[in-house]
Records
---
Amino acid sequence: MSYAVKEMFLTLQGEGAQAGRRAVFVRFTGCNLWSGREQDRATAICRFCDTDFVGIDGLGGGRFADAAALADAAVAMWQGGEADRFVVLTGGEPMLQVDDALVDALHAAGFFIAIESNGTLPVHPEIDWVCISPKAGSTTVQRRGNELKLVWPQPGSDVEAMEGWDFHHHLIQPLDDANAAANQAAAMALVMDRPRWRLSLQTHKMLGLR
């Protein structure tokens, strides 16, 4: 199987429970909740995405012929020894492309594998760190993992039900849009009211990182 990747880059993980960790980000093209085209945003299930995942023309992106080629590119991007290699598979929706061969190849290359998924597809069972970001209006089938990261506010989200899902961390992340200040206040208010949750901030944006 070949893999279509929008971009691949070395940075610091900017949000969630792994924030601050050096990581190779692999952003796959394609999503099952929005086409990525602005003309389709108003009718999409997920309407607030701020990420370009269309095409393979980003920095480090391309079409990789097989899992070994993608893993080799991630190793080259890491620019260091094998110790503490960390890769984040994201998108779009990475589970549209992630398969046994890729997970095996990344593990063979010494990577600890994290994924950021909308949870509408089952996550590969051998991935080491599972972050699910549910979207209102979709059906979340992956209800267990390491962190649940809910962008807020999202009308229609059943916060109480999500508190019963099997995650180590329940995170609320303010939506970054024209109402950012109000969204931050709403997120903080939710955490103060429901202490099962913790506040997650997009520190990469504060630091000017990718």
Note: The chain has five helices and nine strands.
---
Amino acid sequence: MDATPRQEAPTRPVRPRALVLRALGLGDLLTVVPALRALRRHLPRHEIVLAAPERLSEAAAATGLVDRLLPASAAGRAVPAGLEWAGPPPDLAVDLHGNGPPSHLLLQRLRPGRLLAYAHPATPGVPGPEWREDEHERERWCRLLGWYGIPADPEELRIPVPAVPSPAPGAVVVHPGADAAARCWPKERFAAVAREVRRWGHEVVVTAGAGEGELARFVAAEAGLPSAAVLGGAGDVPFDRLAALVAGARCVLVGDTGLAHLATALGTASVVLFGPVAPRLWGPPADARHRVLWHPAGDDSPRPGDAHGRVPDHRLLRITVGEVVEAVRGLLEPQRGPVAGTRREESASGSGAALTPGLRTPG
């Protein structure tokens, strides 16, 4: 009998894992790119796992900051009921989802080695900084990491331009949809702006998320665009194609929704329309490429309306076609003067330029 001891195969070291909870939408993912970049830099040997809806898997991969997506979702902005985490507990868990017990407890159930989260009186075992209601989303999560000793810069928000070609290079992209009616500017107004931009000789493309096909087709038809000008609708536009379109666009016209954040992340000029939520919470950075329109009418609170309401917010409805036409033309044709009948003022939010109607506005 051979008494020589058997040599066991060497055990491969297990790569440490960090779980990041952000089970929300595209815009929510893109606003935490600076925080994800800080984590990637701070944890170069960790596998970074993002708990987010499965439909964001391509977008998460495109950031270059996430190793794997763990499918997780819930209705609206709720916290998922559970996470299908396999294997040993995560070495680190980071709550980039919210500031209350539901997200804290969801992560605590996995028994992570360490949990980074905002403090809340209902979860006294979780240390962390104090939550601030009036804070931009990018800055909020960078401040959280900074409190734990992880430097994060909210200006590091860019993602790589996709390698695939744009389906409409140099087009003006109009996105009339949003995930709540409160943030949807009237479709007739989107169509009027698209019609004017087309009259200037620019190609116009209308994008639609899943279920928004009828809306996009209406805008295209009213603007005199061919049916081929509509991208998406039956389902979401594949992320690489959508990102290529936005990256190669002359300008993006959009409400306060995910495509606005994609334009910011890719450095594309944009005109963004705000209503129930102040742009200082979710708007693009101060940059000549981005125009923000918002009419709070004296109410300068961070959330003067219901962002998930079932009717368009009345602050959003104060934005006129003429204002939007001027904002778009200011990006496309800066050498020309303002549209007749409009004047420029600073937004009450202090975030970007607002355009206020004068005696009359076109459209």
Note: The chain is about 30% helix and 15% strand.
